[in-house]
């Protein structure tokens, strides 16, 4: 009996994996309303990304397999990685002993290096994962900080973009991210012509219509640089690592209101176990800090969100330098609390409030002055469900005058466990106050009110 049960579980998991791979083979697109993503068969796609910047540079094939399996098991469906990595990715060979270019020349790609990238992209597709590829980290276009060297100009940026797009045109699981933690312009330094050329090359060879966005520097958005040009398929912001409770909800609401309408993603919120403002003395962001930002981002209308761990993005190990006080090796960080908890947000959205959700702060009647306690609200299911993210366990007063039913269902969802902790029904009043289940004050909850 145990053997039969085990075989059934195996075949069920294999079938689910096969179906996911089949969906990915058709790619994703932007929904008609411009706010969200969908598979090309029309079913909703919620972006849950993980940050793996140094993936091609610092891991072996065996390690990459381990990493991808772990992220797939946790519900992640997008992996963000950089082809020309930040940490001396042009001159320090990867684990295959290869560098990307011959003679630091983007017009002379090293075939052996890109065969390795091919292998990773294909392996991700087999596992049902999209891979969001940054053609380069920003220091190869605008040094500002980092190792560099700067190797791109308008001509070779276009050629490189075209080379990549033609090479990966057959992979529907590829998404392109220009930028790489840099502003497109600052003061008198304007690198937009170079990024524009690279994106033009990506477009020309983009027979699969893989989506394109731009990853900016901290506490900024792609809309800061490209709002006047319809050059991107969706927008990306980086709320970053400088402080707690950055008002990402305001930025998401701002960006989703810009015309033409496009999905918005926080592609780099604070990383779990990252020192606050890069200073060890400030303490580290923990899972609670991470949940507060990603939930308030999504509840404010983002099409998804990307998680990151400070040891994992850099794949810190005893073989490489420690960047900015990482506390553990990457393989020890794979199962950190927030890494596991992100899937609960994805499951909540997919099962309750998929691509018909609409942020609506008018539902919260309390005055909101403290960013650490800011409540984000949305409604969906044709106004039959409202959800409120409470970053702290205190009473919330809400407006339910728009509910058409006289009886309501009240549920409390625990983001740290993914469980519904309590359920009850009540008579609806136009204004109602709800108190979370008993527990610590610094504990977050999602309130669901429906009929």
Automatic annotation (TrEMBL):
Putative collagen-binding domain location: 359-449
InterPro entries from the UniProt entry: Apiosidase-like_cat_dom, Collagen-bd_put, GH
Sequence ranges assigned to domain Apiosidase-like catalytic in this UniProt record: 32-352
Domain of life: Bacteria
PANTHER family: ENDOGLUCANASE, LMO1036 PROTEIN
Annotated protein name in UniProt: Putative collagen-binding domain of a collagenase
């Amino acid at each position: 009996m145990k053997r039969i049960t085990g075989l059934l579980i195996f075949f069920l998991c294999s079938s689910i994996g096969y179906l996911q791979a089949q969906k990915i083979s058709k790619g994703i697109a932007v929904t008609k309303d411009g706010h969200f993503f969908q598979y090309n068969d029309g079913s909703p796609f919620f972006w849950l990304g993980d940050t793996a910047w140094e993936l091609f540079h610092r891991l072996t094939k065996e390690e990459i397999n381990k990493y991808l399996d772990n992220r797939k098991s946790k519900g992640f469906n997008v992996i963000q990685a950089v082809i020309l990595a930040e940490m001396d990715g042009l001159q320090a060979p990867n684990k295959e002993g290869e560098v990307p270019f011959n003679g630091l020349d983007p017009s002379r790609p090293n075939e052996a290096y890109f065969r390795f990238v091919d292998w990773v992209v294909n392996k991700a597709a087999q596992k049902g994962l999209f891979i969001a590829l940054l053609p380069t980290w920003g220091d190869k276009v605008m040094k500002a900080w980092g190792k560099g060297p700067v190797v791109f100009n308008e001509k070779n940026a276009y050629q490189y973009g075209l080379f990549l797009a033609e090479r990966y045109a057959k992979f529907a699981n590829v998404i392109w991210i220009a930028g790489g933690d840099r502003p497109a312009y600052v003061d008198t330094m304007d690198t937009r012509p170079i990024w524009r050329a690279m994106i033009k090359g990506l477009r020309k060879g983009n027979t699969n219509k893989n989506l394109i966005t731009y990853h900016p520097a901290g506490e900024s958005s792609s809309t800061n640089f490209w709002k006047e040009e319809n050059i991107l398929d969706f927008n990306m912001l980086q709320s970053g690592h400088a402080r707690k409770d950055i008002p990402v909800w305001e930025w998401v609401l701002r960006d989703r209101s810009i015309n033409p309408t496009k999905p918005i993603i926080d592609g780099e919120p604070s990383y779990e176990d990252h020192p606050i403002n890069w200073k060890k003395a400030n303490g580290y962001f923990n899972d609670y800090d991470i949940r507060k930002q990603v939930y308030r981002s999504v509840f404010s209308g983002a099409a998804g969100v990307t998680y990151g761990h400070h040891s994992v993005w850099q794949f810190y190990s005893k073989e490489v330098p420690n960047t900015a006080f990482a506390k553990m090796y990457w393989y020890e960080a794979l199962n950190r609390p927030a890494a596991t908890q992100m899937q609960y947000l994805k499951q909540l959205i997919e099962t309750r409030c998929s691509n018909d959700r609409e942020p609506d702060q008018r539902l919260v009647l309390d005055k909101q002055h403290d960013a650490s306690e800011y409540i984000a609200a949305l409604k969906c299911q044709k106004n039959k469900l409202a959800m409120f993210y409470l970053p702290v366990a205190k009473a919330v007063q809400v407006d339910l005058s728009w509910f058409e039913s006289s009886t309501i269902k009240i549920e409390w969802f625990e983001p740290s466990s993914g469980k519904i902790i309590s359920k009850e029904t009540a008579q609806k009043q136009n204004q109602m106050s709800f108190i979370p289940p008993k527990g610590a004050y610094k504990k977050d909850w999602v309130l669901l009110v429906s009929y």
